[in-house]
């Protein structure tokens, strides 16, 4: 089989890239290890920056996002009983759109299927050959049978556990990592959200987040120990702990109900450099991970897709390799800023096991500074709604 762009991974990065290329008449094949339903079964953050919203429109898949997404002009931050609002519209001139990643991924799958996009599911033993030549090949197996996909370029969109990153020789690759000493226990419940905007809560019992998917579907998180398992937490204990971490007024309003999903995610900051090796380009979680505080995972994947899509467009439409040559540098410049924001916001909001009295005072002072200082709110809001591409 032959295509112009071989895309490894059918998560949001791979699908968005494939759909954008399709709109420009550039052919791609998406190779996915699992199935469409497996990919759509994963629950991930659902806060979209304007840059991602614009890419979805450019890809011709923005209709449902526009009609079903919620415009959020701000978010609340609490510290103990105190609560204040960061006004995104006023401080950064833009809102964010709350629309589940599952929904966005479904829209992309439906669009690719409708436009005859080529997929291979259940691919195994994927490897890339000749990434440093002008004729790369992706070799893989489906049901024990070996297949080859010849292409001009390979997009490694296969997430943190994929194979693309390790295709770049160890001598060329550099990895940077920070692992946080806690996790997030998340619960999805068919209850109305406690508030119409998100609440990020710093409490002496640990962090909590009140988020949502729609008027009758809420998403809540609490900071937990890495040794906890979801089975350790009954619904009752989860709700009880959440209520203790948010201000009393919000806790009293909180509507609880049975959880329909409960899971624990560890928190990690990770970046690999470079993001390009020859004709292989890493995109999204394959190249970097952020802790979820601030919901930058999907949005940072989208900025990679933006740079890669434009680089490929420039190559095919103008025979110009400038975008390709500068992909890694451009993508990484923005990745590191999203890493900084996610690390900063995580540090501001969580309780760390080794935090001293001094560290707690610093955290408190930083929250107070954000509450009282307009410049600090502008910086927070600009990062939250998304830095320019
Ligand atoms: N071959 C083919 N596909 C693979 C392989 C492989 N060897 N390894 C992994 N995959 C697939 C996974 O099954 C998954 O569907 O690649 C896809 C990667 O998707 P994501 O992990 O969602 O990564 P990405 O598309 O970059 O999305 C980034 O989504 O995952 C969230 O937190 C992440 O919000 C961020 C955004
Ligand atoms: C979510 O709704 O799942 C969510 C929202 C905001 C975050 C993280 C997760 O910062």
Mean pLDDT: 97
Radius of gyration, Cα only, in angstroms? Answer: 21 Å
Tell me the name of the CATH class of the largest domain. Alpha Beta
Tally of separate domains: 2
Please report the distance between the alpha carbons of the first and last residues: 34 Å
Low-confidence region ranges = none
Largest sheet: 8 strands, mixed
> Please, what is the CATH homologous superfamily of the largest domain?
FAD/NAD(P)-binding domain
What percent of residues adopt helix (DSSP H or I)?
25-40%
User: How are the strands of the largest sheet arranged?
Assistant: 6-5-14-15-16-13-17-20
Question: How is this structure best described in words?
Answer:
With 389 residues, this protein is α+β, with helices and mostly antiparallel strands. The chain folds into two domains: 5-48 and 64-69 and 96-177 and 268-346, FAD/NAD(P)-binding domain; 180-266 and 350-385, D-Amino Acid Oxidase, subunit A, domain 2 (D-Amino Acid Oxidase, Chain A, domain 2, 2-Layer Sandwich), CATH 3.30.9.10. Helices cover 39% and strands 29% of the residues. It has helices at 12-23, 36-40, 50-58, 63-68, 88-92, 101-114, 164-167, 235-245, 248-253, 297-318, 322-349, 357-372, 374-385, and strands spanning 5-8, 28-31, 47-48, 70-72, 74-79, 82-87, 96-98, 118-120, 123-129, 137-142, 145-150, 153-156, 174-189, 199-203, 206-214, 217-224, 259-273, 276-277, 280-282, 288-289. The strands form four sheets. It has an eight-stranded mixed sheet. It has a six-stranded mixed sheet with strand order 8-2-1-12-19-18, covered by helices on one side. The radius of gyration is 21 Å and the shape is globular. The two termini are 34 Å apart. Residues 8-14, 31-34, 39, 44, 101, 123, 126, 157-159, 161-163, 284-285, 297-298, 301 line the site of adenosine-5-diphosphoribose.
């Amino acid at each position: 089989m032959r295509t112009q762009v071989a895309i490894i991974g059918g998560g949001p990065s791979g699908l968005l890239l494939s759909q954008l290329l399709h709109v420009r008449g550039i052919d791609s094949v998406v190779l996915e290890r699992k199935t469409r339903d497996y990919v759509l079964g994963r629950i991930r953050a659902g806060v979209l920056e304007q840059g991602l919203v614009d890419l979805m429109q450019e890809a011709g898949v923005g209709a449902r996002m526009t009609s079903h997404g919620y415009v959020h002009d701000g978010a609340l931050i609490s510290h103990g009983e105190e609560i204040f609002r960061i006004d995104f519209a006023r401080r950064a001139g833009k809102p964010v759109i709350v629309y589940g990643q599952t929904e966005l991924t479904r829209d992309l799958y439906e669009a690719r299927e409708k436009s005859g996009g080529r997929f291979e599911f259940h691919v195994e033993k994927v490897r890339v050959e000749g990434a440093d030549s002008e004729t790369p090949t992706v070799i893989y197996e489906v049901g024990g049978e070996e297949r080859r996909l010849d292409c001009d370029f390979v997009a490694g969109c296969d997430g943190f556990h994929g194979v693309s990153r390790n295709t770049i020789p160890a001598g060329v690759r550099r990895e940077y990592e920070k692992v946080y000493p806690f996790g997030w226990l998340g619960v999805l419940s068919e209850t109305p959200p406690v508030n119409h905007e998100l609440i990020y809560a710093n409490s002496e019992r640990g962090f909590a987040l009140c988020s949502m998917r729609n008027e009758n579907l809420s998403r809540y998180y609490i900071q937990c120990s890495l040794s906890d398992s979801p089975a350790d937490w009954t619904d009752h204990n989860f709700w009880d702990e959440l209520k203790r971490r948010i201000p009393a007024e919000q806790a009293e309003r909180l509507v609880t109900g049975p959880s329909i999903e409960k899971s624990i995610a560890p928190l990690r900051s990770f970046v690999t450099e470079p993001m390009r090796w020859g004709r292989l380009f890493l995109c999204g979680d394959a190249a970097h991970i952020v802790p979820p505080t601030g919901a930058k995972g999907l949005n940072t994947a989208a900025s990679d897709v933006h740079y890669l899509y434009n680089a490929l467009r420039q190559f095919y439409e103008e025979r110009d390799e400038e975008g390709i040559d500068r992909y890694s540098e451009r993508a990484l410049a923005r990745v590191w800023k999203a890493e900084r924001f996610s690390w900063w916001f995580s540090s501001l909001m969580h309780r760390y096991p080794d935090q001293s009295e001094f560290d707690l005072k610093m955290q408190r002072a930083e929250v107070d500074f954000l509450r009282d200082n307009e410049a600090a709110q502008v910086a927070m809001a600009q990062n939250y709604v998304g830095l320019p591409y």
